[in-house]
Design brief:
Blueprint (H helix, E strand, L loop, with lengths): L5 H9 L12 E6 L1 H9 L15 H10 L4 E9 L9 E10 L4 H11 L4 E7 L4 E7 L2
Antiparallel strand pairs: 1-2, 2-3, 3-5, 4-5
Length: 138
């Protein structure tokens, strides 16, 4: 496996490189789009078989995103390890679903796929009639 630079990896995830963000441990990221995660796998910064504790694997998260309708936004949360590792060093420990339409199939798929998460939240915004669901694992 080819190990690339921390700079390139951080440019993809955070839009910049700041080595000081790694002074103590991994760095959290929020709302990573599926296309970004696919690019990280392609460049060997993430391994699709990796998983965080009891969370689904990166591959399972991406498979879920692929099954959702076009009216649904999917984003991943997690953290980046402070060094490059053979496994990639990208950990996904949460997923979000947002939709402005009632995408019943995607909502049911979310609950079916992630119903055993450590935490599962749902909300409905009356002002714009949008649904938001989140699941994450400790």
């Amino acid at each position: 496996m080819r190990l690339n630079s921390l700079e390139e990896r951080d440019q993809i995830i955070f839009g910049s490189f700041n080595p000081e963000r790694y002074l103590e441990s991994g760095v959290r990221f929020q709302s990573m789009e599926p296309e970004t995660l696919k690019k990280l796998i392609e460049l060997k910064y993430a391994n699709k078989k990796d998983r965080h504790n009891e969370a689904p694997s990166i591959e399972e998260f991406l498979n879920f995103a692929a099954k959702c309708g076009k009216e649904v936004e999917i984003a991943f949360n997690g953290y980046v390890c402070p060094q490059l590792m053979e496994s990639g060093g990208i950990i996904i420990d949460g997923v979000e679903l947002k939709t402005e339409k009632k995408e019943q199939d995607s909502i049911l798929l979310f609950v079916d796929t992630f119903g055993k998460a450590s935490k599962l939240t749902t909300s409905y915004d009356l002002s714009n009639h949008s649904y938001k669901m989140q699941a994450w694992w400790d």
